[in-house]
Specification:
This protein is about 50% helix and about 15% strand. With about 500 residues, the chain is of the alpha+beta class. The chain has 2 domains: about 210 residues, Metalloenzyme, LuxS/M16 peptidase-like (Cytochrome Bc1 Complex, Chain A, domain 1); about 190 residues, Metalloenzyme, LuxS/M16 peptidase-like (Cytochrome Bc1 Complex, Chain A, domain 1, 2-Layer Sandwich). The protein is globular.
Length: about 500
């Protein structure tokens, strides 16, 4: 045993030196600068291939929304691809007049729908009028011109994503087309036209139906959020309720954009074959015109500690599901990284406890996984464990095993070997993510906004070294209490297996 410990410590020292080398090589090629309007740029130089990757990180997500406009961050993300007064239109002057008429008709529809005695016949006529105006407006639209321009110039990976904490926009181009990126990206965040608004509204409604209303697991997640958070902003899904999607207007989106899409609320990341001085010149030329604005304020409404276990159960004609959540702190808290290590100890990988117990030995689960920070990490959230029962097995059976394994961790120390294995797998995964330019940029930008510095991304190496077996045992006792947990599950209708 002593020989093994000495060998393992030696191996860990070598791995630590290797990991420090990786971090140092990445950090020495990162540069930052800030324009006069407050817009910050983070550049990771890598001239190995003539490609550049770009990420625009907006410090705005569903947790920043209010009653009546839930889902608007995601809605705006869709509309950010619709072009400007120059891109995406054949004649903006004529198009603008029709857009105004459409908005006026939609306001009339909402007014009538929300009246004490809605006139269905009037609503039908107004909807028909709106439909005719949409067809008229389409004559002036060049659909997806933003994407077409990029593809003609070798652009790939154009996409975006909205979370509870932020919205990101990203794509890659040959590095000799960096000025094209600067022009297009600066214009869509300084001169946007939210055209095809009513068409995109239908797309988003269909997305909600597909991913939530017609999806058992989608419905389960919404139910779990609603019972897990009472007062803080994570209790609503990113896509928002259908009633909100139906009522959001183009003026709502314009106002939301003006409030949140400004220089102090955006951070831009560039990685690849780009030189610092070239980026500075282009940034000053194209991005200086974005209004300074203000950074979105943190929401200080945080739930008090949960007083007792909560459970929500859906009965569906579908595969049973089990999700168990425990309340965890925000990523800025010193204990958050312990939840990340706990993933590898408990569910991630073939050597983790639950995988060996449920999937390999008992064969009672088809799959088991977990992660910290559901549905976000900016505020206190959930550490969730999710699993699917195998044929002939039940959610209750899996629950009992999971709770038993957690109790074991409270009563018995984790072995040095088991902990070091979990830490090593966690570190390897982190280093793997650093190799992806897009993933690295999102990490840097997110850390800059949430943690106050992009450099905090690399703190995990030293933080992991400090975590010992006693720390992990105390951690499990502190956070994995029955009164802190939320259980969400899907059971077969009628009790059929």
């Amino acid at each position: 045993m002593k020989k093994y410990v000495v060998f393992f410590i030696s191996l860990l020292l070598l791995f630590s030196l290797y990991s420090s080398s990786i971090v140092d090589n990445v950090k020495k090629n990162i540069y930052t600068f800030t324009l006069k309007n407050g817009l910050k740029f983070i550049l990771y130089e890598d001239h190995s291939v003539p490609i550049a990757t770009f990420v625009t990180y907006a410090n705005i997500g569903s947790s920043d929304e209010r009653i009546g406009i839930y889902g608007i961050s995601h809605f705006l993300e869709h509309l950010a691809f619709k072009g400007t007064r120059v891109i995406g239109t054949k004649n903006y002057k004529k198009e603008k007049k029709i857009l105004k008429k459409m908005d006026n008709v939609f306001d009339e529809i909402l007014k009538e729908k929300d009246s004490v005695k809605p006139d269905k016949n009037k609503i039908k006529k107004l909807q028909e009028r709106l439909s005719k105006l949409r067809k008229e407006a389409d004559k002036y639209v060049i659909s997806n011109e933003f994407d077409i321009i990029l593809k003609k110039n070798g652009g790939v990976g154009l996409n975006a994503g909205t979370s509870n904490d932020y919205t990101v926009y990203y794509f890659s181009l040959p590095s000799n087309r960096i000025e094209l990126w600067a022009y297009l990206e600066s214009k869509r965040f300084s001169d946007p036209v939210f055209r095809e608004f009513y068409k995109e509204k239908e797309v988003i409604k269909e997305e909600r139906r597909l991913r939530t209303e017609n999806s058992p697991i989608g419905k389960l997640i919404e139910e779990m959020l609603s019972v897990s958070f009472k007062e803080q902003p994570y209790h609503i899904s990113v896509i928002g309720p259908m009633s909100n999607i139906n009522h959001i207007t183009r003026d709502d989106v314009k106002q939301y954009f003006r409030e949140h899409y400004n220089a102090n609320n955006i951070v831009i990341g560039v990685a690849g074959d780009v030189y610092l001085n070239d980026l500075k010149k282009l940034a000053k030329k194209y991005f200086s015109y974005i209004p300074a604005g203000k950074k979105s304020l943190l929401n200080y409404t945080v739930d008090p500690p949960q007083l007792g276990e909560k459970t929500t159960t859906l009965y569906e004609d579908s595969q049973p599901w089990l999700i168990i959540g425990y309340h965890c702190p925000a990523e800025t808290h010193k204990d958050f990284i312990k939840f990340e290590i706990f993933n590898y100890l408990f569910t991630s990988g073939r050597s983790s406890r639950l995988y060996k117990k449920l999937v390999v030995k008992n064969k009672s689960a088809m799959y088991v996984g977990s992660f910290a920070g559901f549905p976000g990490t900016k505020y206190p959230s959930l550490y969730i464990i999710f699993t699917l029962p195998n044929s002939g097995h039940t959610n209750k059976e899996l629950e009992d095993v999971i709770f038993k394994e957690i109790d074991k961790l409270k009563g018995n120390k984790i072995s040095e070997k088991e902990l070091e294995s979990a830490k090593k797998r966690y570190l390897l995964n982190q280093f793997k993510e650093l190799k992806s330019k897009q993933s690295l940029l999102i990490k840097l930008l997110s850390s800059e906004v949430i943690n106050g510095s992009w450099e905090r991304v690399f703190d995990f190496v030293d933080e992991v070294k400090k975590i010992g077996v006693n720390d992990m045992q105390d951690f499990v006792k502190k956070y994995f209490k029955k009164r802190f947990r939320v259980i969400a599950k899907i059971e077969k209708k009628g009790g059929k297996k």
